[in-house]
Amino acid sequence: MPYFDAASAVPLHPVARQALLASLDEGWADPARLHREGRRARMLLDAAREAAAEAVGCRPDELTFTTSGTRAVHTGVAGALAGRRRAGRHLIVSTVEHSCVLHAAESHEADGGEVTRVEVDRGGRVDASAFAAALREDTALACLQSANHEVGTLQPVAEVAGACREAGVPLLVDAAQSLAWGPVEGPWSLLAASAHKWGGPAGVGLLAVRKGVRFSAPGPSDDRESGRAPGFEDVPAVVAAAASLRAVRAEAAAEAARLRELTERIRARVPQLVADVEVVGDPVRRLPGTVTFSCLYVDGEALLHELDRTGFSVSSGSSCTSSTLVPSHVLKAMGVLSEGNVRVSLPPGTTEADVDAFLDALPDAVSRVRAQLGAPAGGDEAVAVPPAGTGSGTSEQEAVLVVDTLGRRCPIPVIELAKVIGDVPVGGLVRVLSDDEAARLDVPAWCEMRGQEYLGESPWPEGGTAYLVRRER
Amino acid sequence: MPYFDAASAVPLHPVARQALLASLDEGWADPARLHREGRRARMLLDAAREAAAEAVGCRPDELTFTTSGTRAVHTGVAGALAGRRRAGRHLIVSTVEHSCVLHAAESHEADGGEVTRVEVDRGGRVDASAFAAALREDTALACLQSANHEVGTLQPVAEVAGACREAGVPLLVDAAQSLAWGPVEGPWSLLAASAHKWGGPAGVGLLAVRKGVRFSAPGPSDDRESGRAPGFEDVPAVVAAAASLRAVRAEAAAEAARLRELTERIRARVPQLVADVEVVGDPVRRLPGTVTFSCLYVDGEALLHELDRTGFSVSSGSSCTSSTLVPSHVLKAMGVLSEGNVRVSLPPGTTEADVDAFLDALPDAVSRVRAQLGAPAGGDEAVAVPPAGTGSGTSEQEAVLVVDTLGRRCPIPVIELAKVIGDVPVGGLVRVLSDDEAARLDVPAWCEMRGQEYLGESPWPEGGTAYLVRRER
């Protein structure tokens, strides 16, 4: 049963398992204690720190073990902002950062700080010079991920780090998605990562803070982890995390090349196998194992369940957690279709046969979901009605076909739009009423994919939003 | 090699080990995901929450898994204070709380809040009515440990919780030391605990927040753990922690009775075997496995190393971590001798033979440390010189013997005092100069133990402090 959600978590690496078992016996005691059990735990912790620091490319005394990547980011952002408070309270992030970075930014705003969110292109990539242009006199900190977690796009971290260095602003790199593949290049100042992304156990994050970076850890602290991560250290988990990082790094180059071929195959084949699909993310500058696509007229969660029944575990940006139905902020920032979104992220060791089986299963899974939703088939929904004579301009006199999907979840609004677009003449207008947030992204994305003109949105008096579309073909 | 530092951490319980291994395979995925691996992790997490909630005595939806007991306390204190900000900003703690509670209180003060620290008796116990008397109109939160981590004294938690309930103030109970033995009685509002104290893995804490308690989690949060503990859940560790808690609870009554006999033996025998020892902590209302004593003329760290060489791992409140030499705030608050402090905390399963071997080894270990320090032998240091006629009153005319121990660490000040007390007549004065913080505790404690009169301290013009003692016998 292939598991294709490596960007979320991967199973424990065999090396990590071995290290964990050994250090459950040897490293359970308090490393702050002076007795032999404590000293043994301390030695294991120190050795793990050296190994992890080498993989990160920093000094051991610059590296703190935290209890998760999220905690590393929260502490890193708050600590750097507090340490640089004299410089100012301006924070820069990209719009496609992991939610833990965005939550930290919101927290900073709630506390009276100011945040600039740097936009990305349609591939999800930040422009290094646009990012640099956001740097100000009062910028205390900038944050940029090394690679995007939903679409796999690599960010120009080295260039941005260089610009930040020149401006005297520390850059925090969220390296959660890339650290397994190699160290982060460029003169970054802080770095955060998460062990369960590289086959380490959950419960271990890394926070590196370069010497010389002003840093003041938030909240109450203790003597542990240089005062940056209070609470009893989970030494066995830390040892396993460090061992796993070394192990995956040893295999990284070969495995990256292999996975890249497999994701390239998915990128190329999916649009051939399934109608009305948009593959998203930068086609070249991307992580080896991650590929993301969106399918018109498909409910992402339904497709995820359909694939799960067929034996494939993937993730969907259409409903990225089990507790929320808000479409992915990443797809939104990129301006691409969010409906029917599927992220395939291959764990190391994924076989060609698994990928081929997925490509075999996908078209039927999509068809089943589309059929359940009553979606138009074949993508030719707009050819039945001949173009009307001279329709142009959006005067108030023009007739507008209204499609009311208030109270109905995406992708219904787009499905209903597709069903009626053929009922208006070329040049004619359709107004889609929807109160599903995802429609804001999906109606324009549908227009771009189908060659129709999107004219904009306006609040609808009876609640929800009206999206106006002109038939172009 | 007996390990007697259970109050700090115990090895993984066999049941926890088994649960951990099983759930490393079954529970590594993200429990927020909808695919089968995610759902499996979610089921394990839910089951662990039910088991742990039952042991705590709360509803599953009141229980959050945190990454350590310290984190549970920090989040609990900050969250309750923020949630009750309208009531006021007054916080009550006892003086003998774990440092994580005191750090949270200091953080609150630094943020402009007010803290009342309720004192304890010489046994380390809070008086429930004194605690209740500290409650005010503007009290937002009160914190009391269920049992003290250094001396094992049980606190009157149920009575205090009742008084808090009456006053409409939530009580947070740090139950780290007692949860293995049973649920916390009384109408507490918040409870914190730590899994590695009961044979669970490190990296798991518990925070229970009763329904109806106003709570606003500090810092950035996410959807995990009811928004109270951001970051990817370590499901295998949580499962192991819950399994271990059930297992130790099943054995708790029998094991408590057994360990209580063993610590009772230590309490009784140590003062017979070693001269000038003070057993500290409440003799009756105490944890089953913890016993603490202090030895005059002994450096706690040296004794700890001496015992470690002999094969016994204990902890010392004289130097409670490897990174600090400040004497324990607990012993200080109790007003008992801090020098030569040893905490023996027996893990479940400790044998009678281990305890007897310890009692065999202790006298020699103490003697060796005392000999190294040149301490007076036998406790009869003051009998050589006959009493002087009529000495009484501290007039300026009286001759004062000055003992200068500036720059020398405890227990040297007390050792030098003991050496010269026989050189002054009964009624005569000795002034001890010291710049070691521990002397403030140890000189009065020595006087009480030796039947001499402690007259007080004053700043010494050349630095440090002068402690004045009158020979009484």
Automatic annotation (TrEMBL), chains A, B:
Residues 403-427 form the UPF0033 domain. GO terms for molecular function: transaminase activity. Residues 242-269 form a coiled coil. Keywords: Aminotransferase, Coiled coil, Transferase. Gene3D superfamilies: Aspartate Aminotransferase, domain 1, TusA-like domain, Type I PLP-dependent aspartate aminotransferase-like (Major domain). It comes from the Bacteria. It catalyses: (sulfur carrier)-H + L-cysteine = (sulfur carrier)-SH + L-alanine. Its cofactor is pyridoxal 5'-phosphate. Residues 377-396 are annotated as: Disordered. SUPFAM superfamilies: PLP-dependent transferases, SirA-like. Belongs to the class-V pyridoxal-phosphate-dependent aminotransferase family. NifS/IscS subfamily. This is Aminotransferase class V-fold PLP-dependent enzyme.
